[in-house]
Amino acid sequence: MKSILTSWPLWALLSACFAALTAIFAKVGVENVNSDFATFIRTIVILMAAAIMVSISGSWQEPSSVSSRSWLFLVLSGLATGASWICYFRALKLGDAARVAPIDKLSVVFVSVFAVLCLGERLTLSNWLGVIMIAGGAVLVAYRA
Q1: Which of 5-9, 26-30, 79-83, 85-89 has the lowest average pLDDT?
Q2: Can you tell me the distance from the alpha carbon of 62 to that of 37, in angstroms, rounded to the nearest whole number?
Q3: What's this model's pTM, rounded to 2 decimal places?
Q4: What pLDDT shows up at residue 34?
Q5: Among 27, 142, 138, CA closest to 92
Q6: Which residues lie below 8 Å from residue 33, measured CB to CB, with a gap of 6+?
Q7: DSSP 3-state of 4
Q8: Average pLDDT in the 71-78 region?
């Protein structure tokens, strides 16, 4: 039997829980702070946490052992993450967390579409139905009549 610690659904669920807490904590934290400066603080904390995790887990590797292709895509991912965080904190500064977070989670829809278009992944009809339901649900949660 596979260990629960190697179960991707567990880690994905934990990620979702922490992402929810991120929205709540960030909304309160950004209340009297410039959203870009708040993103800067958050980034420093994440950098320190990642450094501690690499140190504790012993997973440091020589940067030269990383291929140039991996470097390119990790840098692009980092730039996309930074842009996402800047936009997210600005949205939280301007809007309600309960309305901002569902729109942010449209990333699930975008990932599905991009994975099909860019990575050649295939989704079944029921997968596409789920994607459509996620999109509809995010719009309904964010919409204020």
Answers
A1: 5-9
A2: 32
A3: 0.83
A4: 95
A5: 27
A6: 41
A7: helix
A8: 96
Record the tokens describing residue 21, joined without a space: 């807490």
Q: In this structure, what token pair is assigned to residue 87?
A: 């936009």
Report how far residue 97's alpha carbon sits from residue 109's, in angstroms, rounded to the nearest whole number: 19
Q: Identify the pLDDT of residue 96.
A: 93
Query: Tell me, what amino acid is at 62?
Result: E
Q: Give residue for tokens 């919409």.
A: 143
**What does the pLDDT average to over 81-102?**
94
Burial of 85 (0-12, 13-18, 19+ CB in 10 A): buried
Terminal CA-CA length for the chain: 49
Alpha helices in the chain (DSSP H): 8-29, 35-57, 68-94, 97-104, 107-119, 125-142
Question: What is d(CA 135, CA 137) in angstroms, rounded to the nearest whole number?
Answer: 5
